[in-house]
Amino acid sequence: MPRKLNIGILGCGFMAKIHANAYKKIGYVFSASLVEPELRMVYSRNESAVKRTAERFNFQKWTTNWKDIINDDIDIFDNTGSNDTHYEPTLLALKAGKHVIVEKPLAVNLQEAREMYDASQEAQKNGIKSMVAFNYRFIPALRLVKRIINEGRLGKIYQFRSNFLQDKMADPTVPFSWRLDKEKAGSFALGDLNSHAIDILRFLLQAEVDSVMGYQKTFNTKRPDQNGKQLSVDVDETSLLWLEMENGVLATLESSKVSTGYKAMWRIEIHGSEGGIYFDLTRANELQFYSKADPLYLQGMKVINVTEPEAHELFEDWLPRGHGIGWEYYHLYMLEHFLRSIVMGTDIGPQGATFYDGLKCQQVIEAAIMSFEKGTWIKIKDILE
Ligand SMILES: NC(=O)c1ccc[n+]([C@@H]2O[C@H](COP(=O)([O-])OP(=O)(O)OC[C@H]3O[C@@H](n4cnc5c(N)ncnc54)[C@H](O)[C@@H]3O)[C@@H](O)[C@H]2O)c1
Fold this sequence. Notes:
Order of helices and strands: EHEHEHEHEHEHEHHEEEEEEEEEHHE
Largest sheet: 9 strands, mixed
Bound molecules: nicotinamide-adenine-dinucleotide
Radius of gyration: 21 Å
Shape: globular
Distance between the termini: 42 Å
């Protein structure tokens, strides 16, 4: 019999919708699922929004006080709120003995992330699991990249390049939101997009960052609020990072919110002594792989379809080979991993992102901001972990 787990979700926005959808599907997409997630309660400050969300996804209850979720009979506290709502509710939920998944980036700053990590360690002593929602770890193509690297097919890795590019904010009339307020978001292109790149870099290379050089720019320093009043933007619209990894790999990570023409394009390229990789989020059911092991006359980037069951468990009993999955599935697969870890008592890492991973990512974000402010390279070991 699958175990029933009551879910409470903080937030009613984009991620709350994606997570609620995933919980509803887990039971039937994974035919051998050991869990039956129950959408118990949802929170938003806005009563009409939370009522709409509760009805749409069939939550049992809704509330405009997030503490109600923690005080209710929930097993899992799913924090999909704005970045500034990650810290306090997450600490309280862990203290109350709830398993917690929190959206990325873990926190608004390193100090908060450190406290959240410490709290997760304390809770773990009582069997409480915690995870950061770095969903891209669950893309089949990137799992295959990890395997190709582990099998030594890239040889000695030299360079890792990531360009995560969106264009919504290229329009100066797009209104102000919490994402453009440093106090609420921490940073923008850096924390929202490059946080994914930092996490995937650490995940794929299984190596830590040694030092960081960062540069950022904000082109639209004022944005109108809903009433047309101009507000100051104090976060980055573009973020450029050079990273020297402890294993000698050089990584260049670019993220931008003003890359006209790209809606949500994420390109990752990895170059090693024996081969190269090219991944593009807009064509995520395939991967390009170049191998020097091929005879010279056949060498070139070759397209691999990543929908073979051998490449990813998801293709074992849900979709037949060759039938691609879409963006929402990375969250579905991530949340299934989280719930399975709870029921089986297995580790969140190394496949899922732990609060330690969230903390390490936040450390790089902090170093990048420091580097931008000082105009120098920052050694990770020199800043508080
Ligand atoms: N993993 C991913 O792929 C991914 C994608 C997008 C966003 N995110 C992360 O998910 C989180 C939410 O992003 P989103 O896109 O859903 O944002 P959103 O703006 O769509 O929703 C944010 C929610 O937080 C609530 N909120 C905002 N300020 C609040 C406050 N002060 N107190 C209480 N509630 C408040 C809003 O009412 C809304 O319900 C962020 O941390 C973001 O970085 C992750």
